[in-house]
Amino acid sequence: QVQLVESGGGLVQAGGSLRLSCAASGRTFSSYAMGWFRQAPGKEREFVAGISWSGASTDYADSVKGRFTISRDNAKNTVYLQMNSLKPENTAVYYCAAVRVRSLVHTVVVGDDEYDYWGQGTQVTVSS
Description:
This protein is mostly beta strands. It has no helices and 11 strands.
């Protein structure tokens, strides 16, 4: 079992930055690929960014490429999402997710149905 707790959300003006953190319980954090997803009101949950168990591979939704950066610190059991140049359309509840990987391949998991564990979410609101 893995428990995930997000933090770092809040209200920011357009063009500003936020850094989200997701702290994971357990001693096998490095065995998990991690992802960030978001869900805006009235919309489906969507993939934002993902990172492999080692941090060697990352992937991003086209809408955030060049502005958002995902990273992880396996010694601290934490994954981060640095969000720069925020836009009002980035307003959403942001969730981190984890899925245990069974090989050493540096796979990034994109599909939300592939993740096993989810945090409670953190609200990000970008004002215009």
